[in-house]
Amino acid sequence: MNRSEPADVHTTEGSGLTANGGEVLSLRRSLLTGGLGFCLASLCVFSTVAFAERWMYARLGLYGAYLAWTALFILLGGGVLGSLVIGRWRLPRFYALFGLAFFAYAAGWVGAYFILRGAAGEWVGAVAGSVLMGSVLAAGLRVVRFALNLSAVLFVAHSVGYFLGSALNNFVGGRVGMLLWGASYGLCLGAGLGAALHLAQARRAAILTSECGRPS
Fold it and tell me: 1, 13, 151, 173: least surrounded by Cβ within 10 Å?
């Protein structure tokens, strides 16, 4: 260890995490940053639905429009959530992980919804999308055994934000209703993503601490 490093901090080469987990951001900060930041990203995406949905369908087609919305979520949301990640997955590399995770989530949700339609498609899509996204994040952050926990957090966050937003949209209607849907969805899913990233990194830090404490 370099003499300039604090005596109680140990690092694991290539891990990007301190063994005692001291660099992992707090859960509160992760929730606030993820929730508020992803809420703004979601509002930007949902504003294109509120003001340009027909134009996008006409120019891009159904699948092209969904791909564009997915790309916008990745581009805007990745920058916000990347600030919560430490080590080798920091920006710009976090975009690769988050892009794959969110694309898997979107594919799972859209696929289920297009096949089943209605409430059944929405709920099955919520499960499928959350499991896929949680699994990709767990694999990328090297906490594969924690994938189910991350998926559960994401499922709850997605479901609350999506269905509450849907209810607000149905009640208010119009462009304002659509924007309220976007705010609810982004705030809740963003908080869930912030919590998932915090939990994954804290778990990884605990694993590294345990490994560093074993006799060689």
Answer: 13
